[in-house]
Design brief:
Layout lengths: L1 E4 L2 E7 H7 L8 E3 L7 H4 L7 H13 L5 H11 L6 E5 L2 E5 L9 H19 L3 E6 L3 H10 L5 E8 L5 H8 L5 E7 L2 H13 L1 H6 L2 E2 L6 H20 L4 E7 L4 H11 L4 E8 L4 H8 L23 H7 L4 H7 E5 L2 H15 L5 H16 L5 E7 L12 H4 L6 H5 L8 E4 L2 H10 L2
Parallel strand pairs: 5-13, 6-7, 6-9, 7-8, 8-14, 10-11, 10-13, 11-12
Antiparallel strand pairs: 1-2, 1-3, 4-5
Bound molecules: pyridoxal-5'-phosphate.
């Protein structure tokens, strides 16, 4: 796969370089120059394949210039090691559960794939890869668990003291092996600033093989396209040939992966981007003016993004043609009050507990049904996290109905290992060099 930067079409790199750089130096985003389209034969029969088989076929079409078939199959087998079930709540409304991975959120797909791709390339170069990330919660857990035990890699995670939930902290600190957690006495922005400084520090640069696990890395998007194919295959087996997807969106990476699947031939009818009060994109759909703004805090905090980093990719996929974009994508925004009401309604209607992000997607699914849905169309809304990750959002009554997955019960405070540090770059630098 060859990729160009959205800020300069002449800036062309190979897949390996795009993965290790994450972001081009010109601050654009990497986009594939050409996308393969799945064959008509395949598109007419993929409902007969398993999730792993579908993922292998799609992945091979995308990356056959960069990997052998054997290597890719091995990576996909390791990544797609848990299901993405489609759960029918009504005859033509289903929830796609993407939270059955190790961190109970859909970011597991991206993090697991990126870790194996990076390990594959750095093994070739025979050098230990040091991944340095700052996290405010969800991303760090997925990255830590994504790289856990992956040979040739080591992860150092910086997180702000007292600002991640108890489950999230245990997911960061109880891994051991190749995962190290540093608790910074500061904010998330402080953690991010420390990471940025590490990447420009000459001593660290020369002594460690540092990389970021940035959320806009192309290796995170690719595996997220697999579950759109998988859900569509399931829908076909149930007799649907029209499917629309509702995606709870923050940085718009998840929906970008859906559009990637669409551009590879998956005949998605509509995409619906659902946001919380951070409504930069819904506002753009209404006014044709794209005005990024500072984020505001909401109950669905993994979507608190005022300037969605993947939006440029979405526009690029539609060649910046706003009419074309609007014919394919709808976008709706909901308040915290509506989110809480939706959680309650979903429980009452289906006896199903949705996390706040998922509840917003359900609201948008309902709004879309009234506006555009065809008779024989299936609407699929994506559930991006398990509700047990957000206990503070729920009423006592609903919270008591959430059953924690076994892996959550096994998180043991006694195994927590963290290094506590001041918000001080020299201290971090010394520690990284001493513990290299
Ligand atoms: C990251 C995240 C989102 C938003 O996904 P984007 O790809 O950033 O749009 C939604 N829900 C949960 C639970 C998340 O962790």
């Amino acid at each position: 796969m060859k990729l160009y930067s959205t800020n300069n079409a002449d800036n062309i790199v190979g897949f390996q370089e795009a993965v290790f750089q994450s972001l081009p130096k010109d601050k654009g985003l990497y986009m594939p120059i050409e996308l393969p389209v799945m064959s008509e034969d395949w598109l007419n029969s993929f409902e007969n394949f398993s999730f792993q088989e579908i993922a292998k076929d799609v992945c091979y079409e995308l990356l056959k210039d960069d990997f052998s078939k054997e290597d890719l199959d091995k990576i996909v087998d390791e990544v797609i090691s848990f299901p993405a079930p489609l759960n029918f709540l009504e005859k033509d409304l289903a929830v796609l559960e993407l939270f059955h991975g190790p961190s109970f959120a859909f970011k597991d797909f991206g993090a697991r794939f990126m870790s194996r791709v990076m390990a594959h390339f750095s093994k070739k170069e025979d050098q230990l890869l040091d991944v340095l990330v700052a996290t405010s919660g969800d991303t760090g857990g997925a990255v830590a668990l994504g790289f856990l035990g992956v040979e040739g890699t080591r992860v150092t995670i910086l997180y702000p003291k007292g600002k991640v939930s108890p489950i999230q902290e245990l997911q960061l600190t109880t891994n051991g092996k190749n995962i190290r957690a540093i608790e910074i006495d500061g904010t998330f922005d402080d953690c991010q600033a420390l990471v940025k400084q590490a990447f420009v520090d000459e001593d660290l640069q020369s002594q460690l093989n540092l990389t970021s696990a940035n959320s806009i890395n192309i290796a995170r998007l690719i595996p997220q396209s697999f579950y759109y194919f998988e859900a569509f295959a399931h829908a076909k087996r149930e007799g649907f040939d029209k499917v629309s997807f509702v995606v709870p969106s923050g940085n718009f990476g998840n929906i970008t992966a859906g559009i990637l699947a669409y551009k590879m031939g998956l005949k998605v009818k509509h995409f619906i981007a659902a946001t919380n009060a951070n409504d930069t994109v819904p506002h753009f759909f209404e006014t044709n003016e794209y005005q990024p703004k500072p984020s505001v805090q909401t109950l669905s905090n993994a979507m608190d993004v005022g300037s969605p980093s993947n939006w440029v990719r979405v526009m690029e996929f539609f060649e910046n043609d706003v009419d074309d974009l609007k014919s394919k994508i709808e976008s709706f925004s909901y308040s915290d009050k509506e989110t809480v009401e939706a959680i309650k309604q979903i429980d009452e209607k289906y006896n199903y507990i949705a996390c706040p992000h998922t509840a917003i997607a359900w609201k948008a699914a309902k709004e879309y049904e009234l506006k555009k849905k065809d008779d024989k169309e299936l609407v699929v809304f994506l559930s991006t996290a398990h509700p047990c990750k957000f206990p503070e959002v729920f009423s006592e009554e609903i919270r008591s109905k959430i059953s924690n997955p076994d892996a959550v019960k096994e998180l043991d405070e006694n195994n927590s290992q963290k290094v506590a540090m001041e918000n001080n770059f020299e201290e971090l630098k010394l520690w990284l060099l001493d513990n290299a």
